[in-house]
Amino acid sequence: MSRYDAMFRRLDAQREGAFGAFVMLGDPDLETSAGILDALVEGGADMLEVGIPFSDPVADGPVIQAAAVRALGRGVTPADCFALLTDFRARHPEIPVGVLTYANIVVARGREAFYAAARAAGVDSVLVADVPLFEAPPYLEAARAAAVAPVLIAAPNTPEQTLRRLAREGAGYTYCVARSGVTGADEEVRFAHSQLLGTLRAFGAPPPVFGFGISRPDHVASAIEAGAAGVISGSAIVRLIADNRGGEAEAVRGFVAGMKAATRR
Q1: Residue-number span of the structural domain to which 105 is assigned
Q2: Active site residues
Q3: How many other C-beta atoms are found inside a 10 Å radius of the C-beta of residue 159?
Q4: Is pLDDT at 191 greater than 80 in this prediction?
Q5: Cut 0.85: pTM above it
Q6: How far is the C-alpha of 174 from the C-alpha of 159, rounded, in Å?
Q7: Does a structural domain hold residue 265?
Q8: Cα–chain-centroid distance for residue 92?
């Protein structure tokens, strides 16, 4: 059983949704980043999604782009990120960890080498945000060869034929975008996803997890009420890190605790 499977089963038995926390690795620096990862778990995050600093993160809004710029300014590399995750995995053997990245990062190292390095670091899944499903087969093959779950993206306007293939090819969880556009912390998020969730369920897709714009406890509660198995919050956490220099861990720990509480049905 994968860490994702074990997590979803445990939470379902407890009548809870999963709370996933996203951060940019190496922001504001590697040492602080390690402490932030621990604080996310201490606050109650059920799963982590982490970014590798990249110069052109096309799916990310200004808050996460700025975090990538800060980490790159510190000279943070993919190798540094894998080392950070290796250390995290030694401290937290059960928490699912996913990497959200971009094709350039994967291809620069070599697909097979990238997924092998991810596996060696204890990574459970990889989502390559700018690779559409029709270009995904080489990435899917490399992921499976390394026993890393390929997470795929679904949206309310994704064609049914694509959702059928996504359900067959994806693993770990299904990343369901809560709204169009790029990542960001929204004031209001509306979850008109019943048809999408019904189709994914009918095709046997991995559990749906909502992302993009999830920034408040009421967003979390609404997503779970709408049928999501979990949510991922990113920009709100990354902004807290930027706004609380010297107190990053404490700030994110408290935020996560409040968001996690909202997953309880």
Answers
A1: 3-260
A2: 49, 60
A3: 8
A4: no
A5: yes
A6: 15
A7: no
A8: 17
Q: Is residue 253 part of a domain?
A: yes
What are the tokens at 259? Answer: 């968001």
Q: What is the pLDDT of residues 67-88, one digit of tens each?
A: 999 999 999 999 999 999 999 9
Domains held by the chain: number: 1
User: Residue 239 to residues 23, 101, 104, 135, 180: CA-CA distances in angstroms?
Assistant: 10, 19, 25, 33, 21
Distance separating alpha carbons of residues 8 and 34, to the nearest angstrom: 25
* Torsion sign over Cα 99, 242, 261, 253: positive
CATH number of the domain where residue 251 is located: 3.20.20.70
Task: Look up residue 254 and give its two tokens.
Answer: 């408290």
Distance (Å, whole) CA 69 – CA 87:
23
- For residue 61, give both structure tokens: 């809004």
In a domain, 81, yes or no: yes
The C-alpha atoms of residue 251 and residue 247 are separated, in whole angstroms, by: 6
Q: What is the pLDDT of residues 105-124, one digit of tens each?
A: 999 999 999 999 999 999 99
